[in-house]
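Hello,

Our lab assistant flagged a job as stuck in the queue for most of the afternoon. It eventually completed. Since we weren't sure the result was trustworthy after the delay, we are filing this so someone can double-check. Below is the sequence as submitted and the structure that was eventually returned. Let us know if re-running is recommended.
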Amino acid sequence: MTAVRPTHRPDGGAPHPPRLRPPAHRVSPRAIAHWAIEAVLLWGLGLGLAWGVAAWIDGAGWTGVPGWLETRVWWLPALTGVVGLLMVAVAPVWRFRVHRWEVSADVVYTRTGWFSREWLLIPVSRIQTVDTRQGWIERLLGLATIKINTASHTGSSEVSGLPVAVATRLAEDLAHRAHDLRDDAT
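-- returned structure --
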């Protein structure tokens, strides 16, 4: 195995850390719908709560409420609705562009996140369990999530938004490969 050396800057400054290439596979495009539906449900609940709080404050007639808050109380549901609309329209597409996965001979490589990114390389030999799960929205869209568990919490990963057949095949393959590698080590 060759060591990865940091690349040196042309100006003689501190070396750059090596760059990771993106994993090879994207999740299913149906994951966009999955994440959008989850966002609609979450932000819809938030909008309902904001509306209820605004109605409660507006109708309570409290004397201790500052005047600026009393006149602007209906901004709360309006702002919640605007932020929710942005999260429903932008976040699922953004997540789809970032979420990727790849399995090589000895490593499971994932990239997740949409504000803060996480690149995770999991050695197949360290895999303890591979779980497949489907929430009700995933079932409606024919998607599944696999969770890869290692002895270390930070080494565990999950890939959501996979077609059911891909998730099932991948989970079985990883479980067999991890089992075979553990048997070879004894």
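-- support follow-up --
The delay was a queue issue, not a problem with the job. The result is valid. Residues 126 and 152 are 9 Å apart (CA to CA). The radius of gyration is 23 Å.
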